[in-house]
Design brief:
By secondary structure, this protein is an alpha/beta fold. It has ten helices and eight strands. The structure holds phosphoenolpyruvate.
């Protein structure tokens, strides 16, 4: 697995040009931690301006359509994200799966389209609270991966997987270290089964209520290769603390 932690902020449907100052401050902070890979996924309206505003961090989309172009009102293709300056995209976020009815097959087609367009992909998976409570977390995540991992020989090279328990997103609740370790280990086994040796190098991010207080603990868990961060990535102060925690965990 790459030793460099990958810390990604997902701004969701938040942010206007006035927030580019936060992105610039995050960019300056990231430059102080060269052993941490940092990226932001702003709303699509900001990708181009953010790309021009920052130097040291990646800029990406939060979703893309599986087709290259066509009559898909309101959607954005992977090629359009590239054209706007994105270098990666998130796919399969639980909010897309739940609110837009995205199946594993749809998520896979988006991931494959994104990689074909030259983007790297952060593929999100995670169980609901009811699934966790009935002991099905690993089974659910395994099924999501089986159905949505991009196929092809080179797929693993441009891929990160984000384990995001749905019940931890935006709630302030996080799973125990033991539970994070268990799920990440089982994701690793599945990545190796899918991609062979290349599966060992895919970073597995943890996401769900990561903040300045819990980041160091989470980043130190086996097989946690970074974090996908929502709320705490909206301000430079909050996000920089997480980048710093990842940097220190990497040195430890
Ligand atoms: C997310 O939505 O990807 C996320 C992790 O959100 P938060 O950090 O706000 O829980």
């Amino acid at each position: 697995m790459s030793n460099i932690p990958y810390i990604v902020g997902n701004w969701k449907m938040n942010g206007a040009r006035s927030m580019l100052s936060e992105a610039r401050a995050i960019d300056r902070a990231a430059a102080r931690f060269p052993k941490v890979q940092v990226a932001l996924a702003p709303p699509a309206t900001l990708i181009s301006a953010m790309r021009e505003a920052v130097q040291d961090i990646g800029v990406g989309g939060q979703d893309c359509h599986a087709e290259v172009s066509g009559a898909f009102t309101g959607d954005i293709s992977a090629a359009m994200l590239v054209d706007a300056g994105a270098d990666f995209t998130i796919v399969g976020h639980s909010e897309r799966r739940a609110m837009h009815g995205e199946s594993d097959a749809v998520v896979r087609s988006k991931a494959e389209a994104a990689q074909a367009a030259g983007l790297s992909v952060i593929l999100c998976v995670g169980e609901t609270e009811a699934q966790r409570d009935t002991g099905k977390a690993e089974e659910v995540v395994a099924k999501q991966l089986k159905g949505s991992l991009p196929r092809g020989e080179a797929a693993a090279a441009q891929l990160a997987v984000a384990y995001e328990p749905v019940w931890a997103i935006g709630t302030g609740r996080v799973p125990s270290v033991k539970d994070v370790r268990t799920v990440h280990k089982s994701i690793r086994a599945q990545l190796v089964a899918a991609y062979g040796e290349a599966g060992s190098d895919v970073r597995i991010l943890y996401g769900g209520s990561v903040n300045a207080d819990n980041a160091a603990k989470l980043m130190a868990v086996d097989e946690v290769g970074g974090a996908l961060v929502g709320g705490a990535s909206l301000t430079a102060d909050g996000f920089t603390a997480i980048i710093g925690a990842a940097g220190l965990a990497d040195e430890a």
